Amino acid sequence: MSAYLQAMSISKTFDDVVAVNDVSLMVDEGKSLVLLGPSGCGKTTLLRIIAGLELPDDGRVVVARDVLTGPDLHVPPELRRIGMVFQDWALFPHMDVARNVAFGLTKDEVKSGRVDEALGMVGLAGYGNRYPDELSGGQAQRVALARALAPRPRVMLFDEPFSNLDSELRAQVRIEVSTLLREVGMTSIYVTHDQEEAFLLGDAVAVMRDGRLLQNGTPSEIYSNPATPWVATFVGEANLVVGEAHNGLIATALGALPLSTLVRGTCKAVVRPEHLMVEDGSAGTITAVDFFGHDSSYRVAVDDATYLVRVAAAPRFRPGDKVSISYAGPEVVAFPETAA
Ligand code: ATP
Q1: N or C: which end of the chain has fewer CB within 10 A?
Q2: Nearest C-alpha to atom 21 of ligand 1 is from which residue?
Q3: What is the reported pTM?
């Protein structure tokens, strides 16, 4: 079975900037994909190409077996049945909720009760007569979602949809939105530069850098088996620990760690801070302590290196304390020392 949405070999150059460099992605029906990467890596350009707002230099976009972008073919955005939600989710302030939701619908669709149906989907049945300034931030966002869902898009695209919200509302709204889209079986692509958000929203996450796709996988695959050292540190905190790899082990200052990758010679292993333990000892010195409430972190200096350690408890050591440090985690991924 082929994927519901396919973006194949997409490339786009603006003047001398290669914004998207031969990227291929697929999303199954009803699933969500998050494009994750730092500013300028090409996420928005890729999203706009899928929406039909931008023409690629090369590549194809296919939804439900309909070719929307291809050689000599460009279906205009309004005929793609792809919904797009931007950062501000702006509602028209002078229109009530019902008219906002009816905005992209035909008269027949409005007559058939699609506005009430869409408001019901987002849990706002009966809110049609309210005006945007009579809604809470979360309700306004749900009206905007109802407006995007009303024309029955086949795919929904979201560009940094929660970045303008304060952190409390953001946590609430993104769970509400992603739960709802899952419930209605909507195929979705989100763009974000926030790793935590990407892992929360995505059935799959595509990590991009400098226009290239570096890795595409489930959040847990990407976290536990990053494709490059850069991905390892972009999707979470990581100690890159240099050692000698041989026979399935890498000998490091933290001891011999079991390897999940086939490498030899001088390598750097990805050691997650939550897989390190500190105890009373003499090998290292605590140089910094941070308490976050739900957990704590230590910086531990051992010889010339400093390690980040995370513990699921209030800190019991203080800066200057002498400790030992050890590894207690799964097999580690390691890369040749020069890998970036
Ligand atoms: P951000 O998170 O900051 O929005 P992004 O990952 O979405 O970044 P894009 O907006 O896709 O990145 O931009 C990718 C590259 O292409 C950047 O270097 C950007 O400056 C360039 N670019 C994007 N659109 C245009 C344009 N219309 N004309 C010229 N250059 C562009």
Answers
A1: N
A2: 19
A3: 0.90
Q: Which two tokens stand for residue 247?
A: 């026979």
**Could you tell me if the CB of 37 is within 6 A of ligand 1?**
yes
Non-local CB neighbours of 40 within 8 Å, separated by 6+ positions:
none
Pocket test for ligand 1, best of 10, 21, 45 (most atoms within 8 A of CB): 45
Amino acid at 263: V
- For atom 24 of ligand 1, the residue with the nearest CA is 45
Domains present along the chain, CATH in parentheses: 5-231 (3.40.50.300), 239-336 (2.40.50.140)
- Residue 190, judged by CB atoms within 10 A of its CB (0-12, 13-18, 19+), counts as buried
What are the tens digits of pLDDT across the range 197-251? 999 999 999 999 999 999 999 999 999 999 999 999 999 999 999 999 999 999 9
Query: Tokens standing for 193?
Result: 């530069």
What are the tens digits of pLDDT across the range 219-228?
A: 999 999 999 9
Cα atoms in the Cβ-side hemisphere of radius 13 Å centred on 239: 27
Is residue 276 within 8 Å of residue 254, measured between CB atoms? yes
Cα(296) to centroid of ligand 1, in Å? 37
- Is beta strand 187-192 parallel, antiparallel or unpaired with respect to 32-36? parallel
